[in-house]
Amino acid sequence: AATAAADSLGGMVESFYYAFGEYDVYGIVDMPDEESMAAFALRVTAAGGVTARTVPLLTAGQVDTAAAKQVGYRPPGT
Prior knowledge:
single chain; 17% strand
């Protein structure tokens, strides 16, 4: 069902793992944009049988781009 939902939004479920601990399941879902991921999470959790916590992942290239940006910030006291 999750795979069909992701497909309907132009995304895909890349992997799905069962786990022990605080969270029972981990899923890696690739979506075309943040809005599609929000729609997916809202729909999957709407009935209340599933709770979800989404964590955006960045590629190495995205981190390199972020690191190269100039940020106008000076720590207090410097």
